[in-house]
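pipeline stage [seq->struct] | target=Pyruvate kinase | organism=Stieleria maiorica | residues=525
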Amino acid sequence: MPIYGALNPLQGSDFTIAETRVAAGHPSATLDVGLEARLVRMEIITMADTQRPFRHTKIVATIGPATETLEKLESLIRAGVDIIRLNMAHGSVQWVGEIIARVRQASQNVGRHVAIMMDVKGPEVRTGPVDAPIELKVGDRLELHTQPFDAVDDGVHRVSVNYPDLPADVAVGATVLIDSGLLRTKVLETTDHLVVLEVLTPGTLGSRRHINLPGTRINLPALTKKDEADLCAGVAAGLDFVALSFVRQAADIVTLREFLDELSSCAKIIAKIEDQAGVENMEEIIHESDGVMVARGDLGIEIEYHKLPLVQTELVNACQVQGKPVIIATHLLESMIQSPIPTRAEISDVSNAIREQADAIMLSGETTMGAYPLESVEVLKNIVQSIEPSVDGQINRRIRLHTPKAKMLRSSVVLAKELGRAGVVVFTRSGFLAYVLGAMRAQEVPIYAFTDIPSTFHQLMLPWGVEPFLMDFSDDPERTIQNALGRLKERGWCSPGEWLVVITNALADDKIIDTLQLRQVNGDS
């Protein structure tokens, strides 16, 4: 089986992307692509303007009408996107199979792999359809009905709502936000099938508007029937990650994991924190999940807006303590939906996420319906290139390491940092070791993670600083190490004379032991 690498380029306009990353100054190369040992010759053009051939922060791009064609997907992959996100709030079962196959085809055409994340819609509370937009003024009464009702011309506005338990869940005086918070209302009274609201901010109410209930605990299921159907299609098509919306407690993650287990899926679960319950239960949610997405759209409505940066930092820190990946999402470059350049505030927002050392930063509307999807990816890469080298290089000391092997992993990145211009080579089938190494946040120390499991290879595209490679493992551990070192040198990741810290197993007195080795790259490697 040939070797693959997930490319994280820093510049996108002056190079052709091949199956593995190539260091600046590397002349050109050919390499094997295809899991069936099919040989394809591809020219690699160097990233002439970059100081280093890697970036630590990964990029997630959501696909939609602006990017879902084969040609556009190829362009996104060439541009350096690491993970493709499918937003199932706007997707169907049929679309899932078609788009995942198209992403894999685009990867094959380009010669570079990406991971696929399905973001399931999850449960939500919405108003029903209206015949015409309703103009609401301050002080108006608005009734939310959970059962059919008769229209009455008495000056009171009435709409249906899709959540039968709403009257039981909300309390008099509670805030109800409609249409992404544009309409603010207060609960005046409730009955068995009715909630009466007072309008606090004027606006227009259209059909099927989203409702947020800050501070209110609701009893919606973790997965809807649509979610389950979408997941079945996604698992069959080969998804790598599942992002679960509106995670309120660890039990929600357990429900999804049990469903994936029934499908024999090894997809990793990303918990989307979007409301106050999720924030309050962040520790147990992070522990149960494989990663977290700070979904700032709904979260910024559910909590006081001026506290959102504090909650983001708290979530990032909590994930780093537990060694779990964290994705910063929503409105990173919102203006680039229509503008070819970002605002200064957006640049600062992205820079902050990089300084906080989030594992990934995510584009949503910018790449689903925006006029400048590729430019948005370029902007993220340029910001990463400028900001990452300025970040404090201290290793993550907050992470909880419970085993001697985990502490050995920390020693490996400490050694690599002190050596300078050194990376860590790790061999993994589950991906666990590489995830822990990425969680160490060793600035300027790339983690070269080799695996012979395709699903693990894709899932290694998320953690901070990890450069994944797919390669057959030999029965002889030394041969496997030499093959890996040879690939790294051949592809321009390291040069003769440089040092690499290698984490691997060794046989000693008929026992398998963990080893930390120091290898110098030479002309024979």
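stage status: PASS
auto-comment: The longest strand covers residues 499-508. The radius of gyration is 25 Å.
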